[in-house]
From TrEMBL:
Residues 1-25 form the signal peptide. The active site is at 265. This is Polygalacturonase. Belongs to the glycosyl hydrolase 28 family. GO terms for molecular function: hydrolase activity, hydrolyzing O-glycosyl compounds. It comes from the Eukaryota. Its main location: secreted. It comes from Eruca vesicaria subsp. sativa (Garden rocket).
């Protein structure tokens, strides 16, 4: 009997302990749920704004600028990650400002196309039609959306060749001060000036970008970049009337990979040295690219009589060229249309530049031209496994011309390095 009473006592104690534990657990669970609810309330639920709900028509005729501006204001002011939804359609818009800083991350989910007015109206220098500015953790999902600049009229009145000035027409897409952001699967077509201008950005990825304009579209650089660090351009196709990619001062750690270029003027670092106090260009990699039917292949261009500057740590690798007029070019007497100071040599210093595994066909007899500056001769220029065949009408094989440089050669070199003295075309 004593044992039975003792067992009952122990069982009772166990039951009390279990009940207390379950009660405490339920209380803690309730408090945790309440805390989570408070967190959700403090964060807000975000916004998903459809531009058509803000009044956009998407019929290609009605000016939808105000609807886009209203929708952007709402998502940018949301306290948690939010989305701007652009359904299928053609949206006629004037200048748009997708400008931050926003209170949280913003995604534009674009299934429709944007269309600019066809009239070429000059504006402020370096102005943009579609502007993305001061955004962090921004994401543009294009789904193949087209940004149509309707630039044909602008090309007819463009007088760059006569005046050397043509920067008052709008850039199709201007990207300024973006950090940790991504732009994917959009297409810029028929821009009035540059297609895309990237300035002061950090850790920006551009993926599956399409650029499309005819060869006669003057000054329509595909993608221009400057004063940016950690930008990546991958899996893209660029057809335009100027440089497919132009790389300006202050560009660091820029990767171009799996890009098709042509028609156009090729891929260029520069022009550099036109203005004082330009920042160095360093850490640029151009690889696994295909360049076809262009005036140049990979080019570095600096102005004569320039202030001091620096270009260093550059790699051109695994590039195929088809029918390119001058596949590899360093031009340190760059002087388009005669608008330059020829009073002295370029003082932009080029060093640590490698051309590796580059092959294809040259439309001109000079396939490799390294025209460096007598004021700052190029140093540590490396040529490794270069193979070009000349396909033009002149007799004989391709040749290589050099001036003020002694390149290091490794592996195959066709044409043989520096068999002629490089001369200026201006």
């Amino acid at each position: 009997m004593v044992g039975l009473r003792r067992a009952k006592t122990i069982l009772c104690v166990v039951l009390v302990v279990m009940a207390t534990t379950l009660a405490n657990g339920a209380k803690m669970l309730k408090e945790n749920v309440q805390d989570e609810d408070k967190d959700k309330q403090s964060q807000g639920c975000g916004e998903s704004i459809d531009v058509k709900a803000s009044g956009a028509k998407g019929d290609g005729k009605t000016d939808d600028s105000a609807a886009f501006a209203a929708a952007w204001k709402k998502v940018c002011e949301a306290k948690s990650p939010s989305s701007l939804i652009v359904p299928k359609g053609d949206y006629l818009v004037n200048t748009l400002e997708f400008k931050g800083p926003c209170k949280s991350a913003v995604t534009i989910d674009m299934n429709g196309n944007l269309k600019a007015p066809s009239k070429a109206t000059p504006g402020k220098p370096h102005c943009g039609w579609i502007n993305f500015e001061k955004l962090e953790n921004f994401n543009l999902k294009g789904h193949g959306a087209i940004f149509d600049g309707q630039g044909a009229h602008a090309w007819k009145i463009n007088d760059c060749a006569k005046t050397g000035k043509c920067n008052t027409l709008p850039i199709n897409i201007r990207i300024t001060d973006l950090v940790n952001s991504k732009i994917k699967d959009i297409k810029s077509t028929n821009s009035k000036l540059f297609h895309m201008n990237i300035i002061n950005c950090k850790n920006l990825t551009l993926e599956d970008i399409g650029i499309d304009a005819p060869p006669e579209s003057l000054n329509t650089d595909g993608i221009h970049i400057g004063r940016s660090d950690g930008v990546r351009l991958v899996r893209s196709k660029i057809k335009t009337g100027d440089d497919c990619i132009s790389i300006g001062d202050g560009t660091e750690n820029f990767l171009v990979e799996d890009v098709e270029c042509g028609p156009g003027h090729g891929i260029a670092i520069g022009s550099l040295g036109k203005y004082p106090n330009e920042k160095p260009v360093k850490g640029v990699t151009i690889r696994r690219c295909h360049i076809k039917n262009t005036d140049n292949g990979v080019r570095i261009k600096t102005w004569p009589g320039s202030p001091p500057g620096i270009v260093s740590n550059i790699l051109f690798q695994e590039i195929t060229m088809d029918n390119v007029s001058l596949p590899i070019l360093i031009d340190q007497v760059y002087c388009p249309h005669g608008h330059c100071n020829k009073g002295g040599p370029s003082k932009v210093k080029l060093s640590d530049i490698t051309y590796r595994d580059i092959k294809g066909t040259s439309a001109s007899k000079v396939a490799v031209k390294l025209l460096c500056s007598p004021g700052e001769p190029c140093t540590n220029i490396n040529l490794s496994n270069i193979d070009f065949k000349y396909t033009g009408k002149e007799k004989g094989p391709a040749v290589s011309a050099c001036s003020d440089v002694k390149p290091k050669v490794e592996g195959k070199m066709e044409p043989p390095a520096c068999t002629e003295k490089a001369k200026s075309d201006t």
